[in-house]
Specification:
Layout: H1 2-8, H2 10-13, H3 21-28, E1 38-42, H4 48-56, E2 62-67, H5 70-79, E3 84-87, H6 93-99, E4 105-110, H7 119-132, E5 133-144, H8 151-163, E6 164-169, E7 180-188
Parallel strand pairs: 1-2, 1-4, 2-3, 4-5
Antiparallel strand pairs: 5-7, 6-7
Helix pairs in contact: 3-4, 7-8
Length: 200
Amino acid sequence: MFLRESLRSHQSIGAIAPTSATAARQMAGFISPDAALTVVELGAGTGAISAAVGCRLGPDARHIAVERDPTLLEALHNAAPWAERVIGDAAQLSERLAEVNVPSADVVISSLPWGNFDPELQRRILAEITKVLTPDGVFAAIAYRPTRLTRGSRAFRAALRASFGEVVVTSTLWANLPPARLYVCRRPRRPIDPGAAPSA
């Protein structure tokens, strides 16, 4: 199913295979099982990362799986029955979360194909992420190594540095197909509200 949907919607999926178990465990490792965290997963797909998230969730934690493809979201029910499935676009993340009474997220995990997005869309999605992420929260995104020199990937790295006070890049995860790295980001910088009154 993943391969079929990838070939049909490569621009929005970007991978030729689900995230490897190694990468999924590393991304889920940012979840503390001892805390009642709210974990938001962007681009949940068929649940390769979702399964690893489930192993780390505390008893009062919430796992919100956001996916724009209804076929993939339906398949997620079998892989992660505990997850609260939300259909929608990451560019409207705060609105979609508000609809399920989620005011903020402690951890945001992304397997979106950032290098396929134009810079403006990258900035819009990151603004939504920093809007909902708690001040001490963490954002982790997987990025595929073969695309690291493309214009979209370079723009994504620049947008991350503008959106977070701390951006750490992991070593290459060669077990993933294609090989990938994780961007681990903390200290979100809130987007400026154009309607806010200037401070005195």
